[in-house]
Each structure stands twice: as C-alpha cells, then as structure tokens.
Amino acid sequence: MTKAGFIALIGRPNAGKSTLLNALLNTQIALISHKANATRKALKAIIPYTDQDNIECQMIFLDTPGLCHSNKLLNRVMVQESLRALTGCDVAVFLASVHDGLQGYLEFLKLCHQPHIVALNKIDTATPAQILAKMRDYQPFATKFQALVPLSASKLQNLEVLLAQLAPLLPSSSFYYDSDQISDAQIKEIYQEMIREQIFQFLSDEIPYESDVLILSFQESKYLDKIKAQIIVAKESQKKDGYWQKRTSDQKDWTGCTA
Ligand SMILES: Nc1nc2c(ncn2[C@@H]2O[C@H](COP(=O)(O)OP(=O)(O)OP(=O)(O)O)[C@@H](O)[C@H]2O)c(=O)[nH]1
Ligand SMILES: [Mg+2]
Questions:
Q1: 40 C-alpha vs ligand 2 centroid, how far in Å?
Q2: What spacing in Å lies between the alpha carbon of 128 and ligand 2's midpoint?
Q3: Is residue 114 lining ligand 1, measured as CB closer than 6 Å?
Q4: Are β-strands 211-219 and 116-121 bridged in parallel, bridged antiparallel, or unpaired?
Q5: In a mutational test of the pocket of ligand 1, which residue from 21, 31, 32 has the highest number of ligand atoms less than 8 Å from its CB?
Q6: Among 33, 76, 81, 123, which is least packed, fewest CB within 10 Å?
Q7: Residue 155: strand, helix, or coil
Q8: Residue ranges per domain, the chain?
Q9: 39/163: higher pLDDT
Q10: Cα four-point dihedral sign 22, 61, 153, 158
C-alpha cells in the first residue's frame, strides 16, 4: 500500500511558504523575498516520505501566493490561485509567522473545509516564552486543526515533525508522479522564478510587482546554462535603458538582461 496527496501551503504574504517549500525539497525552485506578494502561481514540490508504519508516501506540496486583501487585478488573480489550490487539496498547512496575530487564521478557517495543520514559522526569531504564548493563542481552535507545529523553514527546524503529522492525513493512493521527480515545474518556470527573485532583491518601488519575465530560449550544457530572457514592464518609463543601467551597473548577475 502507498499513500499520496496534495498539500496546499496557505498563509499571508511573507509567512515563509516558498522558503518552506524549498527547504522540504532541499533545493531552490520557488522565489523567496522579504517583500510581500512575491509568489504569483502555485508551484508544486514532490516529497517522498516513509511513515512510522513503513508506508511509502508521496507528499505533493503546493506553494501558493499569499492571501491578502487587494483590489488590484493581479492580486485578485493570485488569491484565486491560492483558493483553487486550497479547494483541490487533500490537506492544508496554514503557515503563519510566530509573530503574527490570529486574524489571518480566522479568515483561513472560513475558506478551508479540508483537514489542516497550523505551522508557526520563524521560531528561530522568537524566545521559548513567545512561542509558547502563541501556541496558547491557538488552543481555542484545537478542535479545528489536526496539529500545531512550531518550526523554522529557513533554519530547517522541526520540518520532520511537520511531515510526520501530515502522513496520517494522506489518503491511500498510488503515486501521482514518478518517484525521482521533484517538481512539476518546467525548467523554464524555475529560470523565470530565479530571475524574478533577483528583480525582487535588487529593484524597489513598483517594478517587482509591475514586471514579468519571459524566457526566450535556454541552452543547457555541462558547466553553464545559457538563458535568454526578456523582462516585461508595465510602463514606458520603467523601460528606459538608463533606469536599468543605473540600478544594475554593479550587479554583474544582470548581464544580458533586457527590458
Ligand atoms: N528568520 C526567518 N526568516 C524566514 C523563515 N522563513 C522565511 N523567512 C523569511 O521570510 C521572508 C518571506 O519568505 P517567503 O518564503 O518569500 O514568504 P512567502 O510566504 O512565500 O511570501 P509570498 O510569496 O509573498 O506570499 C524571506 O525574507 C525569508 O527569508 C524562518 O524560518 N526564519
Ligand atoms: Mg512565496
């Protein structure tokens, strides 16, 4: 017998969903940024796991855009993407920073009809007393969630505990993906996310939110992959050569980018 299921990572922008996805996978496929609303579409990571009864599991995690209130079309589309992931999943993980209030969780409860786990992230930045206090805040909802797991996605703390709590919630099923596959993302999408991550890191103002990346071609070789990409911006003024030269003159990673 095997088990397999889809697990949606849901939470406010900046909770650490993409960091958790990469940490579980032990490799970077998803864009991470200290700026909110970095993730735009649901990326999947396929994690193999053997549970305590020696049953082989395939956990398919979906990284989703952060849930937030906004009237902007792009944000509304991103929220739709998260809600789609939530309705289609077997189990949800509500991820919140250990420093966040419970407002986001109360909103999540209205939307989630699946079994779910609450994961309190960024415990590396909190004292044991702060962590305990936050866990106590969640106790009135203990009948709603299956488990409450404090963890640190970036410091890789307690990730095993999260997987152990998720395993019993997965349905018996054959695997959806080949055992050696780590993501359903196309290599092109991963390159696209890597370049978007640099845009989030090095450019401020509205550009990260008003741009997208088009991969025109890529050529893989043993030591060096050559990627030709175009950065698409919303306004003519964001396209000026001067803007990019000024902002990127000392970032050699940017060589070759056009806007
Ligand atoms: N200290 C600490 N920082 C973390 C941890 N996990 C994530 N972060 C940081 O939190 C910020 C947001 O992380 P992301 O993974 O991009 O958050 P996200 O939930 O995917 O955000 P959106 O895609 O905008 O919804 C980044 O600066 C991460 O480095 C953690 O366990 N500890
Ligand atoms: Mg993200």
A1: 8
A2: 26
A3: no
A4: unpaired
A5: 32
A6: 76
A7: coil
A8: 2-169, 187-255
A9: 163
A10: negative
Tokens 């079994």, located at residue: 115
> pLDDT, tens digit, for every residue of 60-103?
999 888 876 666 666 666 777 778 888 889 999 999 999 999 99
What is the overall mean pLDDT for the chain? 85
Which residue's structure tokens are 């695997």? 175
Task: State how far the Cα of 3 lies from the Cα of 161, in Å rounded to an integer.
Answer: 18
43: three-class secondary structure by DSSP: strand
Rounded Cα–Cα distance for residues 18 and 53 (Å): 30
Residues 26, 28, 34, 39, CA torsion sign:
negative
Amino acid letter, 92: A
Count CA atoms closer than 13 A to 27's CA, side-chain side. Answer: 9
Residue whose CA is at the smallest distance from ligand 1 atom 16: 32
The minimum-distance atom of ligand 1 relative to the CA of 125 is: 1
Say if ligand 1 is within 6 A of residue 62 CB: no
Give the residue-averaged pLDDT of 230-239.
84
Closest Cα to atom 8, ligand 1: which residue? Answer: 16
Contact 201, 253 (CB under 8 A): no
Apex 245 CA angle, 242 and 251, nearest 5: 160
CATH architecture, domain defined by 2-169? 3-Layer(aba) Sandwich (3.40)
- Cβ atoms within 10 Å of 239's Cβ, excluding its own: 15
Residue type for 109, please?
L
